[in-house]
Amino acid sequence: xxxxxxxxxxLPGIAGAQLxxxxxxxxxxxxxxxxxxxxxxYEWLTTLCKDIGHRLSGSEGxxxxxxxxxxxxDTFGLDKVWxxxxxxxxxxxxxxxxxxxxSPEYGAQTLMALALGNSPGTPKGGVRxxxxxxxxIDELRAMPDEKVKxxxxxxxxxxxxxxxxxxxAYGNAxxxxxxxxxxxxxxxxxxxxxxxxxxxxxxYPHTGSTFVSDTSRNIPSVALSTNDAVxxxxxxxxxxxxxxIETHGKMLEDKMSYNVIGEIKGTISPDTIIxxxxxLDSWDVGDGAQDDGSGCVHSMEVxxxxxxxxxxxxxxxxxxxxxxxxxxxxGGLTYADSAISKNxxxxxxxxxxxxxxxxxxxxxxxxxxxxxxxxxxHMGTFISLLEPYGIGLFPGGGGADIGPLKPKAGLLxxxxxxxxxxxxxxxxxxxVLETVHPRELAAGSAALTTFIILLDQYGIxx
Amino acid sequence: xxxxxxxxxxLPGIAGAQLxxxxxxxxxxxxxxxxxxxxxxYEWLTTLCKDIGHRLSGSEGxxxxxxxxxxxxDTFGLDKVWxxxxxxxxxxxxxxxxxxxxSPEYGAQTLMALALGNSPGTPKGGVRxxxxxxxxIDELRAMPDEKVKxxxxxxxxxxxxxxxxxxxAYGNAxxxxxxxxxxxxxxxxxxxxxxxxxxxxxxYPHTGSTFVSDTSRNIPSVALSTNDAVxxxxxxxxxxxxxxIETHGKMLEDKMSYNVIGEIKGTISPDTIIxxxxxLDSWDVGDGAQDDGSGCVHSMEVxxxxxxxxxxxxxxxxxxxxxxxxxxxxGGLTYADSAISKNxxxxxxxxxxxxxxxxxxxxxxxxxxxxxxxxxxHMGTFISLLEPYGIGLFPGGGGADIGPLKPKAGLLxxxxxxxxxxxxxxxxxxxVLETVHPRELAAGSAALTTFIILLDQYGIxx
Lengths: 462, 462
Known about the structure:
2 copies of one chain form a homodimer.
Chain A lengths: L1 H8 L11 H18 L1 H13 L7 H15 L5 E13 L5 E6 L3 E5 L1 E3 L11 E8 L2 H5 L3 H4 L3 E4 L10 H6 L3 H4 L1 H7 L4 E5 L25 E4 L1 H13 L3 E5 L3 E15 L4 E11 L9 H20 L6 E8 L7 H12 L3 E7 L7 E8 L5 H12 L8 E4 L13 E9 L4 H4 L12 H21 L4
Parallel strand pairs in A: 5-6, 6-7, 7-8, 11-12, 11-13, 13-16, 14-15
Antiparallel strand pairs in A: 1-10, 2-3, 2-9, 4-8, 5-9, 10-12, 14-16
């Protein structure tokens, strides 16, 4: 019954014809209904998390995720599914970090820790040194080098949980992890520990990328659980405290990997592209369920759902599962290089890389030649169709993988899920399928699918 | 520092003075920040769930919850905290239900079941009879009585998960539980099993209130887990199937219990009341964390937070923790009787009884003498201050406990949390503290506190 109705709306003969507002509203309602009842994204995420598991670039998991997502998209009946080769860094953790705090006041205690991604291992036997606590990189920069030399630096600034949006709180604390070890190494430190970028006070350490360079000294660095960061800080306040750190990280040779891409060709302007994507790689802990398995299955469901309702887009709708967002962004860079060299025009590129929470809307940024105000004002005329679903537009957004498209894209947009829970799990062992609610995940797929139909119907300008 | 600023805004000397829009926006931001960093509601909910536990009316848990919430509110420095006596029904489950399916095709299988609240126990030794599946009460009504006589009726209509809002899906399926056993008993059935009103396909049975009467025959009735409802339906399709049911429910003598009430007196119109509340009782399974521990600690935090910022309301702000929402509504009825007999005017009564999810806004209904359109239009002028927090107004809402105030209230309003997860846990053993996110719970407290400040400042009419 449903399909017959759609055929009336979307006859092959009137492919690409503009839908009326009424029929669009009906279509939106039906896509939500289908997503909520079929729960396809959750089915795929279960496979990705539990049969494949985590999938750091260069790992066997990443390889299997490429194969699985390609073969799954092959079943949708798309116009084209392909792999785009990209060389990726290949870092291996090489075993668990061992971190021991030695405090005259509290004795020797093992701390929960994960080596930061890309960081080098310690010499065999580890490093042991006095630990100095700082809150900011600027505070460290202001210290005389001789005070830092031979020491372990402990960055202990917590995420500011008074922020409304945990992504803002993360953004304001993440410099410690990304640049802290680099600056500390430059000043002669022998190791770094950071308080995990976590929104919970618990025992999970949260890893993530740290900057390594060819020209300066890279030093071993670890993230401590928030509970152990509190413990360590207390010990330091009580008197001179040492840390013993042993890690085993190793950067190996670059490895060949792939972006996985599928598309439905546009019936009117096939050279204009609406992209939706997430990243297929994850950290080498947990399931990578929130970051970013969810974004991948969201994006896959967009194409699956459009095919299922036999939607014939005006523009080409393309799903891209990027490789290597976490520790190199090679997939995003390769994709943009290729798109720009082929002179492809991405009217819109949307990334889902904010987890599986209930979507609240889309954050919008402009490509280099787009007037954001005009686009937002035009989109304001149709986004009201998604208001009953809790979806709004916000200025500012995008995604790491689509960022390199900026010179040649109309708009760069990021899906904005509810952020309360995301940083409880981000880059940690507890980023598992069980944190994802099938219905919230489905709402993300439906928000993306319906928003893309609106963009395809009404464009980004009047 | 923060308190000094508030003192400037809210000097005792200018108690009740109207705040400027700018200072209100600042106040709202600060209340969110305080709620997110202090996480007071979660601290209280932990005590209510883990030290006290579930608290069905008449139980020891309910008694302890009354004592605890009274003594906790006593520490806020309110103008008055008191107990309002109310006689409540005292139903006891009396032990686990045993339900066995006897199928020629699938053999004998034990099914996961909970007796429905208020339902009588079976005779010693249980009942055993052939089971007839129906989807609706109307389908049962249309059956000849002789077909029903001596049988067990199985109501198997699932919640429609294609609905956007799970509360609507629940509302459309709940007649089976509330009225199904009554109708079946009237037609001569000896027992009823219902498919649990659950949004998940799993092994948890969900209990809840069923109608019992003095004049007709009340029969034993149970809820089956959704997985077992599927199993039973499959067996019935394969051939005549029997159920064995043994339950132990018993309605004892009414017991004295209490609504727990605290208030801050209004400085300008103390006889006009803004009420915020939840219900203190829960079912006798799980922790009663979502239903409705969350609503209680939400409401308590409103008064706690207003005192903490030294807010001097124009109107009296009253927190009411109602007793016996689940199986009698006696607390709500007693409260309204008393309020109406004292000629108290509730300008607004707000209930939080939709769980601990991220709030999306407030559902608004009119009291008997209020023009809803005019009130919504006026409130539209200030609710925009809460838009950045994801809070909107919706027509339609309220709460069971505040419903009886309708003849004498201006507006009846229900907090609307995000509903995706609520019916996974509702009235089941898995409604535990661990399903509640401290930050989402805090957002509920902050939404209520700030909305109440706006109502206190700007009223419900121009």
